[in-house]
Design goal:
The complex is a heterodimer of chains A (249) and B (297). By secondary structure, chain A is an all-alpha fold. Chain A has one domain. Chain B has 297 residues and is of the alpha/beta class. Chain B has 2 domains: 221 residues, Rossmann fold (3-Layer(aba) Sandwich), CATH 3.40.50.300; 44 residues. Chain B contains 11 helices and 12 strands. In chain B, strand 10 and strand 11 form a beta hairpin. The chains are: A mainly alpha (249), B alpha/beta (297). The interface between A and B is medium-sized, with 22 and 25 residues. The structure holds adenosine-5'-triphosphate and magnesium ion. Magnesium ion binds next to helix 1 of chain B.
C-alpha cells in the first residue's frame, strides 16, 4: 500500500515535469480562468453584485476545466498513443498510474483556483474567504467529482480528433447553464431546472457560500449531496468502462 | 515462491483458442518454451501471432485452453509476474516529451531490481540520444527505446513482438547481439518476426502459424529437413544452361552427375548443393494461407 502511494507520487512528479516542459501549453492551461476573470472583471467593474457571482463561478469553472476537460483529453490521447497499454504491461499498479495522472490535474486546478482567489482579492475586492473548511470541502469533492466524470467520459470519445468536439459539447453548455457567468437565480425557469441536476451548479453554490455569502456547510449540505451523487456515478463508470487500448472499429 | 521451479518450462500453451466475434483468430495451438530458450513465432499477417503473445502477456484473455507463464496464469495480472517479464509490443507509444534516460529511470522504479539505465541505453545504442525527448526520435530509435524499456527491469522472460521492424541493417544486427547476450544470461525469449533470417539467427526453435494453427515447429535447421527433406543441386552444363535438380538422395545424384561429367570431359560449373532455407519452407507451408481466410469471411 505504501509502495502504491510512493509510486503514485512518483508518477505524479513525472507528469508535473512533463507538463512544465511544454510552457506554452502550461500557460494557456493555467491562465485561461484568469483571462476569463479579468475580462469579466473589466466588464463588471465596480458592480459588486456581479463580481460576487463571477469569482465563485470562475472558480467552479476552473475545477471543471482543470479536471474534466484536461483528463478527458489526456485519457483519450494516452489511450490512442498506446501509452496506457505500455503502462499496463509494467508492474506499476493501475491505481498508482491513474492516481498520478489525476493528481497532476488536481495540481493544475489548485493553481488555477489560487490565481482566481488572488485576482478576486487584489482586483475585485472579494476580500476574505468567509469559510475556509467549507471551501476546501467543496473543492476536494468537486475535483474528485469532475476527475471521475472526465475519465468516465473519455470512454465515450472514440478518438483524439473528435475529443475537443465531444468535450466542448458538454463543457460549454454546462458552464453556460450552471451560473458561471450570471446568478443562476436570474435564469429562465427551464434552464434553472436543467441546472439543478448538474453538479457544477451545486459546486458553484457551495463555493459562493464559502467565498462570499458566509453560509455554513450545514446550509449547503444539499449541494454537497448532489455533487457526491455525481461523484459516485462518475467513479462507477470511470472504473467500469475503462479500456487500456483503442477499440478496433 | 510461485513459478520458480527450475527445469519447468517458462511458457506452456495448451489448446489455446481465441475468437473475436465470429472470427477464430487462434484455433487450438499448443507449444511450450523451455527456460533459457529463444522461441520464434513466424507466420503471415493476421496469422494470430500478436493475439497469442498478448494472451501470454495478460492483455487479452483466452477463449478456451490454458496458458501458463513462469507458473502464473497471466490473465490474473499479478504484479509478481509482471515484475519478471519484459514486453515489447507490436504497437505502442510513449510520452512525447519524456527524455530517453528519464524514461528508463522512471520505468526502472517500477521493478524490484532494475538494471542501470545508462547500461541499457548503451545496450540498445541510444547513447547519443540519452537526453533527447521521445518525440524527436526516429522510428527505429523509438523502437530501440521500446526494447530498452522492456529490459530495464532485468526480466527473466522477454516478449518481443516484431522487435526489429523499422531497424536499419546495422541496428538489426546490433539487436540480434542484444538478444544473443540475453540468451547467454539465461533469459527466455518469445519473439515474433517476419524476417526469416532473424528467426534462423536467433531462435532455438520456431513455430510457423497460419490461420491460427501451428503448421510446423522445430529448430530452424530441422524444419528444413523435416518439411522439405529435399536437397537442391544446381549447376551450369556445357551449353551454359542453368540446371536445377531436387533430390531426396543427394549423394547418389552427385555421384551420377559428377561421373557423367567426367566421362564427357566436362566440368559442373557453379555447382551448388543447398538445403531448402527456412524461407523456402516458410513459403511452402504458408502458400495456401489465403484459402481458409477467405472461407472465414
Ligand atoms: N481486437 C481484435 N478484434 C477483432 N479482431 C482482431 C483483434 N485483434 C486481432 N484480430 C484479428 O485476428 C487475426 C489475428 O490477428 P493478430 O494481430 O494476432 O495477427 P498477427 O499474426 O500478429 O499479424 P501481423 O503479422 O500482421 O502482426 C486477424 O485477422 C485480426 O484481424
Ligand atoms: Mg502481430
Amino acid at each position: 500500500m505504501s509502495d502504491t502511494l510512493a509510486l503514485t507520487f512518483r508518477q505524479y512528479r513525472l507528469e508535473r515535469r512533463l507538463f512544465w516542459r511544454n510552457p506554452s501549453a502550461a500557460f494557456f492551461n493555467l491562465g485561461l480562468p484568469l483571462l476569463f476573470l479579468i475580462a469579466f472583471g473589466v466588464i463588471f467593474h465596480g458592480n459588486e453584485k456581479e463580481l460576487h457571482v463571477i469569482v465563485p463561478g470562475i472558480a467552479g469553472m476552473s475545477v471543471m476545466s482543470g479536471t474534466f476537460v484536461a483528463l478527458g483529453h489526456n485519457m483519450v490521447a494516452l489511450r490512442e498513443q498506446g501509452v496506457l497499454k505500455r503502462m499496463r504491461g509494467t508492474p506499476l499498479p493501475s491505481g498508482a498510474y491513474l492516481g498520478g495522472l489525476a493528481l497532476n490535474a488536481v495540481a493544475n486546478t489548485v493553481i488555477q483556483i489560487l490565481f482566481v482567489l488572488i485576482a478576486g482579492r487584489l482586483l475585485f475586492g472579494i476580500d476574505s474567504i468567509k469559510d475556509v473548511p467549507e471551501l476546501v470541502v467543496f473543492l476536494v469533492l468537486g475535483v474528485a467529482c469532475f476527475s471521475a466524470l472526465g475519465v468516465a467520459f473519455a470512454h465515450v470519445i472514440p478518438n483524439s480528433e473528435s475529443a475537443p468536439a465531444y468535450i466542448n459539447a458538454v463543457f460549454l453548455p454546462v458552464i453556460l447553464v450552471s451560473g458561471v457567468f450570471y446568478d443562476s437565480a436570474d435564469a429562465p425557469s427551464f434552464i434553472k431546472d436543467i441546472a439543478q441536476i448538474l453538479p457544477l451548479t451545486h459546486l458553484i453554490d457551495g463555493l459562493t457560500g464559502a467565498l462570499v455569502k458566509g453560509t455554513t456547510l450545514g446550509d449547503n449540505a444539499g449541494h454537497l449531496a448532489v455533487v457526491a451523487v455525481w461523484t459516485v456515478f462518475g467513479t462507477f463508470f470511470a472504473i467500469r468502462g475503462f479500456t487500456w487500448e483503442s477499440r478496433r472499429s | 515462491m510461485m513459478g520458480g521451479v527450475a527445469g519447468e518450462s517458462a511458457i506452456e500453451v495448451r489448446d489455446l483458442r481465441k475468437t473475436y466475434g465470429s472470427l477464430e483468430a487462434v484455433r487450438g495451438i499448443s507449444f511450450s518454451v523451455a527456460r533459457g530458450e529463444v522461441f520464434g513465432l513466424l507466420g503471415p499477417n493476421g496469422a494470430g501471432k500478436t493475439t497469442t503473445v498478448e494472451i501470454l502477456e495478460g492483455y487479452r484473455t483466452a477463449s478456451t485452453g490454458t496458458v501458463s507463464v513462469l507458473g502464473f496464469d497471466p490473465a490474473q495480472r499479478q504484479r509478481a509476474l509482471r515484475e519478471r517479464v519484459g514486453i515489447v509490443l507490436q504497437q505502442t507509444g510513449i510520452y512525447r516529451n519524456i527524455r530517453v534516460r528519464e524514461a528508463l529511470i522512471h520505468f526502472g522504479g517500477f521493478y524490484p531490481k532494475p538494471r542501470d539505465p545508462d547500461e541499457v541505453i548503451a545496450l540498445v545504442g541510444l547513447q547519443e540520444k540519452a537526453d533527447a525527448t521521445a518525440g524527436t526520435l526516429s522510428g527505429g530509435q523509438l523502437r530501440r527505446l521500446d526494447l530498452a524499456l522492456a529490459l530495464i527491469g532485468d526480466p527473466e522472460l522477454i516478449f518481443l513482438d516484431e522487435p526489429t521492424t523499422g531497424f536499419d541493417p546495422a541496428a538489426r544486427r546490433a539487436a540480434w547481439d542484444v538478444v544473443r547476450s540475453l540468451r547467454d544470461l539465461g533469459k527466455t525469449i518469445l519473439l515474433t518476426t517476419h524476417y526469416l533470417d532473424e528467426a534462423q539467427e536467433l531462435a532455438d526453435r520456431v513455430a510457423i502459424i497460419k490461420g491460427g494453427t501451428i503448421v510446423a515447429e522445430g529448430a530452424p535447421r530441422e524444419l528444413g529437413v523435416g518439411h522439405a527433406s529435399r536437397v537442391r543441386v544446381s549447376y551450369r552444363d556445357a551449353l551454359g544452361e542453368q540446371v536445377e535438380q531436387v533430390t531426396d538422395d543427394p549423394t547418389s545424384l552427385l555421384y551420377q552427375l559428377a561421373g557423367d561429367a567426367l566421362d564427357r570431359g566436362e566440368r559442373l560449373e557453379d555447382l551448388e548443393v543447398s538445403r531448402p532455407t527456412l524461407e523456402e519452407v516458410y513459403l511452402e507451408l504458408t502458400a495456401d494461407v489465403q484459402e481458409p481466410e477467405v472461407a472465414d469471411v
